[in-house]
Amino acid sequence: MASFTVVVGDPDSGMAHQLEADDQDANRFMGKSIGDEVDGGAVGLDGYTLEITGGSDDAGRPLNADVDGANLQEVLMDERQTGYKPRREGERRRITVRGGEVSDAVAQINAKVVDRGSADVEELLGDGESED
User: Fold this and answer.
1) How far apart are CA 104 and CA 31, in angstroms?
2) CB contact at 8 A, 27 and 3
3) 106 near 63, Cβ under 8 Å?
């Protein structure tokens, strides 16, 4: 069964929350690509909508939206992109990246909040401090 670490960024608060998606919840992410929207209920954010912004596989190779499918591919990169930072002007390098589609080889998914639910993120995740 697939299992992912989902890092959810909240643009309004500037906070990022690291959550786990296992079994049936992880299946909601399968087959989705970078830029697709997913129901936040998969990670405990009921009523929220998340947009997949990136991720990495179990070896640390980044997902690349320019590569179709979920397979590994060597891409010639000539400018700064996810997974490559040129050291000098005009430098090019062939980098192995994974396609932009989420598969069982993906270990981490990065997402951001697009639509909010009625409750606050900290309330849903139990991160807020309770007053006694």
Assistant:
1) 9
2) no
3) yes
In sequence order, which residues have a C-beta less than 8 Å from that of residue 126 and are 6 or more positions away?
none
Token pair, residue 73, equals 């591919």
pTM of the predicted model as reported, rounded to 2 decimal places: 0.84
- Whole-angstrom Cα distance, residue 29 to residue 110? 11
DSSP 15-56: EEEEEEEEHHHHHTTTT-BTT-EEEGGGGT-TT-EEEEEEEE
Digit-by-digit pLDDT tens for the chain (132 residues) are 678 899 999 888 888 999 988 888 888 899 999 999 999 888 888 889 999 999 999 999 999 998 999 999 999 998 888 888 999 999 999 999 999 999 988 899 999 999 987 778 777 776 655 444
CA nearest to 95, candidates 78, 71, 112, 111:
78
- Cβ(99)–Cβ(34) under 8 Å? no
